[in-house]
Amino acid sequence: PQEAISLARFHNVASAYRRATLLDLPFPERVFGEDVAWAARALEAGWSLAHAHDAEVRHAHVYSLAGALERYRLDAAFLRHEFGVRVRTGPLAVLKGLLHELREDHRHRARVAAPWGPLLLRAPLLRTAQVTGQLLGSLGWNVPIGRAATRRFG
Question: Which of 10, 4, 22, 1 is nearest to 51 (CA)?
Fold first, then answer.
């Protein structure tokens, strides 16, 4: 399953498709994860995906804590439903994930020479919401959370 996810995991926010390909293989009806579900179907149908590893895309969301928790709950629920993969399996996986994300935030900040500012306080809170949402989605939690919640998955 991890290999399938690695091959199919891409975001349609920065993708290009041939018209004929989309006519032959349209996006599936999904409330979430249509791009990953499409990529998995394309690979199963014998198509290939190409990645431009040197391409740069600027795409961002500004999430509230509840919004981050909900977004990553949906993502983990999608991966569990579509691929049988659990992103976070328990408290230890949550802690490891939190430490990994904070380390990556620090590396990114250093790479772009950005000042910490408010990020110093906000990043740990947002990353905690992220990995907690991943745990809830991995465990099958299917109740939308807070005002940020718009959808159930599955």
Answer: 10
Question: Cα 144 from chain centroid?
Answer: 17
75: three-class secondary structure by DSSP: helix
The confidence score (pLDDT) of residue 7 equals 58
Buried b (16+ CB within 10 A) or exposed e, 10-41: eeeeeeeeeeeeeeeeeeeebebbebbbbbbe
Burial of 82 (0-12, 13-18, 19+ CB in 10 A): buried
Q: Quick check: helix, strand or coil at residue 113?
A: coil
Q: How far is CA 9 from the centre of its chain?
A: 9
**DSSP sequence for 139-151:** TT--S--TTT---
Tokens read off for 153: 């998955």
pLDDT band at 137 (very low <50, low <70, confident <90, very high): very high
Q: Please name the residue that has the structure tokens 């041939």.
A: 18
Other Cβ atoms less than 10 A from the Cβ of 84: the count is: 9
Judge contact between 41 and 28, C-beta under 8 A.
yes
Helices and strands counted in the chain (H then E): 6, 0
Name the residue with tokens 């995906």: 49
